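step: validate -> pass
step: tokenize input -> pass
step: predict -> running
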Amino acid sequence: AETFYEYLTIGSMIDKEVFFDDEKPLVASVIYNRLDQKMKLGIDATVKYATGSTDARVTDSMTETDSPYNTYQVDGLPIGSICSGVSDSAFAAAQNPAKTDYIYYVLKDKEGHHTFSSDYQQFEKDKDAYLELFGYSDNVSADNASATEGDGDE
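step: predict -> pass
step: emit ->
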């Protein structure tokens, strides 16, 4: 990111994806790592914004929504912020991401913590654990920054 608006956009995605401040720089690192690798961001919060959904789950059909905010469909960042106010911690994380090789993250418990990985096979294991924990079928997005190897689409 190079501009205030890009930081704001990234910060908004971070705020809508994670609750815990200590995870925000990690999610920022995933976003930047995926951008650097030219991977789709595949961020569920952008799909919820694009569809107006307040459901906890994001389905495969939702990820197919044609919108400049849907990061399962668009390359790079969405067209703009996905929330009206970005927290200081998310904006700071957008400006100063953690230095990691992570490109995936998945919700790991019902309190809202995530697990992070750089390996697709580990991501698949984490996603399966998420699906089992919440009793979801595998046609539901796993609140992650990617769902398939390579391009980020599910």
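step: describe -> The chain has six helices and two strands.
step: cleanup -> pass
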